[in-house]
């Protein structure tokens, strides 16, 4: 008699034993018990230790100034950005922060086998079909398409300190040492408004999330709010800093502003009341950069003392202090769009990417020059121009200006220089990026008083672009508009994979 696979899995059970009588009584027990399977494992929950750094290095006699670094601050406001203003001198400030130890969870144990789970009998050998492994989808590499010049915007009378795309991407704002702010239309480059009111040069600007309000910080120690639609200033000023204001940022909800100043303090402001909510004695040197995390719960600040500090927005407590072994002055800082990393510019010609949870620098980008001025840049994504590339294959880049007049793009993971372009005559102080509806733009500014807009175009034949002609739009000058997929959403997916990709790149995990 042949046995099939079903017969082996479902063998007939022996008949139950006959009940025996003991002294005429039935034995209530059958002396049989089922087999029991049990599985257990120890599970260690990873613990995240926050460490508050209370280090406050002794303040030396060195002072600093917004866009360049010299021995002493000027008596008057530094309207021109093409001169040396101050340099950092620090003694004995060498400290390495070790990453906080954490316990990682053990791998999950095999799932328990339940006796109540029915066992499916396989098909008989006569009808069984060998399993086939589906072929993986073809891997489509994300190709980097270089940015090309689109148009040049002119109108400022002195060096342009910062430039920013609006959240919807329909406007560009620029600020200058000539104490003015200019609003431009992104698609055409038309000049929309000139905002005047500051009494000294303007070093920093920030858009509100609703695309309507623009905040500006100036050497006249004030922060002013502007209606970008009407082109007028709001009546209230944000007053409280005792010196030049270097950096400002809006919270994601638009109800708070954080500012950093030459007076070494970080202020948190309530926009509605125009009053400071909290003053943080943040650093022992002028604060060069501040930023909000994407949900507004954390603030990052940096200064010439070489420290990067993470703050709790609600309590004002310092949660983490980051410092590199070289202890170079940090002039600008920015959260990654996914909130997991911090990008910092330092005056040793390096841009460093920090994992602030672990307190370690994971990437260092080099190839530009930055030893004198406070430069700033941005994140971006590439690969989305090719519609066949899946969302998960998009890659991230970091971009920065250089004191040599160049703009440099790096791949975030590999640190490879993707593109290098000569953009301005003199130092490139600021760069910002925008990606919407498949249109990728970049904008840069510098000491040559100009603003240059760049566009990443496909390699398919199209209208030729006229490079760098004043007020001339390359190609058809079209812009897809504010609706659609935002580049930051793709950046989130890309950066969330970085920790896993780092293991392949340099084995740090």
Plain-language structure description:
The protein has helices at 5-9, 487-496, 498-505, and strands spanning 21-22, 25-26, 147-154, 160-165, 171-176, 180-185, 191-196, 202-207, 213-218, 222-227, 232-239, 245-250, 256-261, 266-270, 275-280, 287-292, 298-303, 307-312, 318-323, 330-335, 342-346, 350-355, 360-365, 377-382, 395-401, 406-411, 417-422, 428-436, 439-446, 450-456. The protein is mainly beta and 509 residues long. The strands form 8 sheets. It has a 4-stranded antiparallel beta sheet with strand order 3-30-29-28, with no helix packed on it. Strand 22 (350-355) and strand 23 (360-365) form a beta hairpin. The radius of gyration is 30 Å and the shape is globular. Mean pLDDT is 74; it is low at 1-12, 18-127, 459-492 and 503-509.
